[in-house]
Amino acid sequence: MTLDNAAEFLALAESYDADFNPSLPRIVIERGSGAILTDVNGHESIDMSDIIASVGHCHPRHVSALQQAAAQMIVGRGSETNPSRAKLIQQLVDLTPQNLDKVFLATSGSEIVEWATRIARRFSGKHEILAFWGGVYGRTYGAMSMNGLVGRKRRFGPVMPGVIHAPYPYCYRCPFDKQPDSCDYYCITFLDRLLDAESTDDLAALIIEPYEGVGGIIFPPPGYLPRLQEWAMERNVIFILDEVQSSFGRTGKWFALEWEKLNPNMLCLGKGLGSGISIAALVSESRLIAALFPGELGGGNGGNPFACTSALTVIDIIQQEKLNEHAIQVGDYLLDRMRQWQNQFPIIGDVRGRGLCLAMEFVRDRRTKEPVRGFSARVSEACYLKGVSLSGSDHILSLRPPLVITLEQAERAANVIEETIRELAGY
User: Fold this and answer.
1) The pTM is what?
2) 3-class secondary structure for 374-395?
């Protein structure tokens, strides 16, 4: 889908950009405003796929705060503090569960995940980490080693030792062929059998996402995460919750942990915290941080005043504009529309979500649940031409717009998606 004004930029990307993926729709976005994206040809689309732009693209208050911060100070040293850093750390401690009272700032979720596991190993004196099928915890070496998707670590050679992978509670495609209303969380019971077979009795921590983002927007059944937390506590295993994707209003709460009142030992945050400016945070129990010597923690330019100003402004915008409540309102509308489509279109096998984080699976047969490979990419490409920007991966289509999306924009986007599925599936 190449248009004239995009050709020059696409050619440069193909020649020099190592991260450029030529298999994706050939679009060059030039600017954004709120939930609207505009490409270099002037084509506008409703952004239904950007989890990083939590308060929208170029929110006026965000832009103004960044302009002032850039004129004052950009670079910051991790071992020192600055006014915005000190205020942000206090805000994060105030917002998170009471047992979390220390904050470490870095520039990416991958860094934070790496530090969480390193701290857990140091504190516990053990080395094994329990991670989950379908989980994606980052792209750096240690985080990649914990990833539960083979495509995220294929052909990179031996990965970090000591990682054990367990099934995530993907109830729609349960690996144990059980039903959530009668299984009594069998996948947690299975953990003991798994460790008996694979562990060296040296388990330091487990790390889990409250919903699997890259893995398909998969939510565990109600009660699973509290039961898992209890399982970890009984075994003196450090419980790390990876909320890099799910925090700051994405599910309609500051943190997804609030839905079931979880109290992790460490909480990993990122993406939406900076709304486009790179910043990530580890909020931890101080007893765990105390296992490190002063100066051992480090994050390069993490916690610099520019990034901290961005995060403080994002938090303030979410509070002042009541975007958590708004995410639930718009998310409920979208989920209701998706359930209507599920009743109308046999190609939709499952719909799921919470707040502004939703997904649907396309299947050939609801009984066998055979995926319709590549269908979501076709939906995404067709929708873009009609003014809706979506993220589709194989047979799963996800909807994760900026929190500022209006109900009217959500309705327009839903109408386009419904029309497109109807056309492509031949209904």
Assistant:
1) 0.95
2) CHHHHHHHHHHHCCEECEEECC
